[in-house]
Every structure is written in structure tokens, then in C-alpha cells.
Amino acid sequence: MAKESSFKNMVITLSVICLVCSALLGVVYSVTKAPIEAAELAKINNAIKAVVPECDNNPSEEMIEVEGSVVYPAKVNGNIVGYAIKVKVSGFGGPIQMMVGFKADGTIYNTSVISHSETPGLGAKITGEIPTRTQIVGKNPASSNLTVTKDGGEIDAITASTITSRAFLKGVDAAYKVFVELQKQQQPWEN
Amino acid sequence: MGKLKLIAEGIIKNNPTFVLILGMCPTLGTTTSAINGMGMGLATLFVLVLSNITISAIAKLIPEQVRIPSYIVVIAAFVTIVQLLLQAFLPSLYETLGLFIPLIVVNCIVLGRAEAYANKNSVIDSAFDGLGVGLGFTIALTILGFVRELLGSGSIFGWKFIDGDGILAFVLAPGAFIVLAYLIVLFRKVTAKKA
Question: What Cα–Cα distance (Å) separates residue B64 from each residue in A150, B59, B72?
């Protein structure tokens, strides 16, 4: 059974255990660091690919920051064909991280939800092919009212998940604001 | 004691979920599908076996009064290793289990086995005890996840056989309690007959 406790042996035991455990964790951390980064990058790249038109550059390498949001430009032969804009909004069950893709003229190309903690079977449908997501594709937030029908807009909310749907559209709106800001920065002579 | 008997005890007589009713937080939280339940069970199994082995090996060197902090540090180290490995090699599973992985540290099954078994028994016996209890936990979580997924989403291990939704309540928290209660009754009825 366990030894008698004295101040000295308690301090020594805990120090040794902590030291060994930290060393072990250090080793595992250094081994898994590269794969973890690769996995995260792959996730971002997949989300970008899903929301912008076909491009020949690597958008994640050319990321720029606008108003605190990360923007990934997609280019063909050096000409911009679209932007993927990463935004974060609060949904029903926690933050929703999403990528919104715009074509160069400001119409929505596609959206992708990167992470969320919405209710399974209800708000979690936001990741699927649902009207709330498909209806906004091809629309320009400047000329369309992209809010749910309950709020007087033209987009159908997910049944029983209005809060999630609102959060999603708020994210699209936030991304569009970043897009507008980006246009201003790039063509200052027009203003 | 026979090694097989040790494993069988962990699965049936000392089943952490159905008999001891321990570790309810991950049990109810992660079993929205069979795969999630199994993933959580296996992660706990891994931590349980390693922590049982380590703790039974060092138990004699640890002074009585600091044994709990020492065990917790050992357990926390293994849990963090599991977390990093999952994040690196199974990112999709890591995402669904999320917060529940670090919470294995405070899962009373792990500390419970360390305190009740591993610090009094040999390394090999402790390893088999961890394996048995871990398997019991994994099996329980997989069954629970299987039933909830079947009724709630209409699918089996992610393979969907109906169009649309199932009975949504079973994927949500209340369904976890309902299914768990029925499974405990069923399990006790079956095992009581054998005894």
C-alpha cells in the first residue's frame, strides 16, 4: 500500500509526476502539431472551394483581413472571380462559423457552414441542402431582402429553427458588408 | 482471478453505465449516434487502460495524502494525449465529441477504477480491469447511441433508411434519459435471471 506522507516525499512525488507528464505531453504535442495544422487548413480549403467559382490560385495563401474578417480572394489568371469571406455569428446553441462566397459582382455564389452547435435534427440542418441556403444563391444582397419571411424578407426559414435561420442570414449580411468595404478599399476613386 | 473473468466483470457485473450508473455526463451528451457513442467509449477505454496500468505501477511510490492529485495529473496527461491524437488524425470525430474529450479527466469511472482497483492490484490485473470496464462503457454507449440514432434520425451507423426525420426527441436530451432508463431496466432484467 501507499507510503506514509511527509512534507518532503509529497513535494518530490508531485514534482516528479508533473515533470514526467509535461515531458510526455511536450513530445505528443510536437508530433501532432503538423497533422493538426494540416487538418485545419484542409477544412478551410474545402470550405473555400465550396463557396467560390473555379479558380487557379490558392485562396488560403492570399488571405487578406478586412474589418476584422478574413477574406480569401479567388482568381483566374490573376483576375478576381470571387471572394470567400469567413464570418462568425451567434446561433441558437452557440457560435456559427461560416464561409460566404461572392462572385466579383457581389452576387452570392454559395455558402458553407464550417462549425456550429445547433440542435441536432433542427438547427443543425443548416449544413444541408435546404431552402434557406439554396434560395440565397445567385442573389445580390444589395437588391434583395435577405431575411426570413417572418421578418418580411424573401427567404424561407428552417421549420422550427427560425433563430438559426436568422443567424445564418445575419452572417450572410455581415459577409456582404465586408465585401462592400473591400470594394471601397480597392476602388477608392469611385467614391 | 482469471483474466477473462476480469473483463466479463467489467462488462456485466460492474458495467459502469447500466449497473454503477457512473459517467452519466458523457453518456447522455455524446450518444446522439452509434458512431459518436462508440468513439467516446473507445477514447475513455484508451485512457482507462493506460491510467490503470500507470497508477498500479506507481501506486506504492505515492504518499497516501497526495494520491488523488497524482492520479488526476496522470489521467489528465493521458486525456490530453488522446485529445491531440484525435485532433490530428480523426478531426471529424474530434469535432462531434468536442468538449466531452477533455471532460474524460473528471469522468468518475476513470478515477473510480484508479482508487478502487488499480492502486491495490497488480499491473496486469489492472490493465484487464481497465479493459473490461472500458469495454462495458463502450458497449453501453454504442447501444444507447444506436437506439437513439435508430429512433431519432432513422439511420443505423450513419446509413439512413428513411426519408426525412425520425422522432426528434430521441436525438435531443430527453431522449437520452428515456432510452437510458429503458436500457437499464432491460439490462438488469437480463442479468438478474442469469445470477
Answer: 64, 9, 14
Burial level of B154, CB count in 10 A (0-12/13-18/19+)?
A: middle
Q: Does A36 touch chain B (CB under 8 A)?
A: yes
Among partner residues A3, A115, A122, which is closest to B63 by beta-carbon distance?
A3
What percent of chain B clears pLDDT 70, i.e. is strictly above it? 97
Residue A191: pLDDT band with limits 50, 70, 90:
very low
| Closest partner CB to A28 (pick from B62, B65, B81) | B81
pLDDT, one tens digit per residue, over A102-129 is 988 888 999 988 888 887 767 888 888 8
ipTM for this model? 0.76
Residue identified by cell 472571380 is: A81
Of B45, B37, B39, B57, whose CA–CA distance to B7 is shortest?
B45
Write out pLDDT tens, residues B24-72. 888 888 888 888 899 899 999 999 999 999 999 988 888 888 889 999 9
In the three-class reduction of DSSP (H, G, I as helix; E, B as strand; rest coil), residue B22 is classed as coil
Report chain A residues whose CB lies below 8 A from the CB of B87.
32, 36, 39
B164 to chain A, any CB pair closer than 8 A? The answer is: no
C-alpha distances in Å from residue B24, one per residue of B76, B103, B154:
19, 12, 24
Interface mutation target, options A32, A96, A114, chain B, most CBs of B under 10 Å: A32
Optimal mutation site among B62, B67, B170, interface A, most CBs of chain A within 10 A: B62
CA B120 to chain centre: 22
- pLDDT above 90 for A27: yes
A36 contacts on B by Cβ (under 8 Å): 84, 87-88, 91
